[in-house]
Amino acid sequence: MAAAADLHQEILARIFLLLSCIADRVRVSAVNSHWRKAALLNPSPLPWLLRPSGARIASYRILGGFADPRPLLSDEGRGPRFCGSAPGGWFVVSCRQHQWRGHALLNLRTGERVALPDRVRIPLDSGVITCPMMIRAAVMSAAPPSAACFVAAVTSSQTNLAFWRPGMDCWLSAPVGMGPARRTAEDITYHDGWFCTVDSDDDLVCYKPEIAPAGAGDGASSLTIRHHAYEFDGLRGAPWEIVSRYLLPSASGADLLMVKRYIAPARGGTCRFQVFRLQEGLPPSWRVYKMTGQLLFVGRACSKAFDTGNAGSPGYIYFLDDVYHGGPHRVLQQNEYPCSDAGAWSYSVRHKIERCLPLAPPSDTSPCIWYHH
């Protein structure tokens, strides 16, 4: 056993790479200080909490310790508003007053930046119009420069949803005239090859952008958008509650989940959660989801679920301060972004909220976001 305790760093690193189960990683890192050091050098897949600002960008490890070593972050992260995140340190950002302006895909690990257009093309019966747009939230299907990279954005413009892939000089709007698609989406995620959005009535619209055949048009029109729309009877909260919705795949990837967050401002903020899964059929429905053995990290266009490795353990939801009076579109109208209504909620303890995330003054540039490294 003593020999195992002194295993070489390279061997320990390979062991940690094979441990996708969070519970196993915690047990192995507790063997001794040597193994814990190896665990810190080979971190778990759990995201970091990112607190952007114009002065500095801070990150915190959720399970481990707030004083643990932190990843090196590019200075490009100081100033932009973060609109969504993806594995590998990629983010969709919007910047108004930094060394550059506009929208971009930004890798905080390397500083690599891919510019995004600021205009969207909208096909109409009478022709095509091109309008300026601002991104509220966005997700990507794969990191650039992959041919599988598509970006879907919830926008503030003449259209609610827009799509882009590398090589396009303009976004392409979602198909119009689809009922739920005309409403304001609250959140967006990528699941099983589809971009999925949910609105304030729990209605769901799923989009699949595809590359059109060669010669079908210029850059912006070289996409076609397939879609499915689902309409449900949404369950509303009490009159004194704000209800916010998040979408994400389950830890296994088999289910699409909707998390409903209930906020009572007069009672101190977030007070409870409900988790549902999409059950397709005739008719489709949102069914209550028994969330055991999972950790859910929810945030606007940055949510992700993880398996704890213990199917009998209660589920936990870690949440950020990203809900504003008047709805998600108000993110574009904030002068500062609070960092107080954040923490964790246990599935097993009704209405139990833990304020376990570090407190900080409001950010001057962006809401907090999950950093998927």
UniProtKB/TrEMBL annotation:
<dbReference type="InterPro" id="IPR005174">
    <property type="entry name" value="KIB1-4_b-propeller"/>
</dbReference>
<feature type="domain" description="KIB1-4 beta-propeller">
    <location>
        <begin position="76"/>
        <end position="327"/>
    </location>
</feature>
<dbReference type="Pfam" id="PF03478">
    <property type="entry name" value="Beta-prop_KIB1-4"/>
</dbReference>
<protein>
    <recommendedName>
        <fullName>KIB1-4 beta-propeller domain-containing protein</fullName>
    </recommendedName>
</protein>
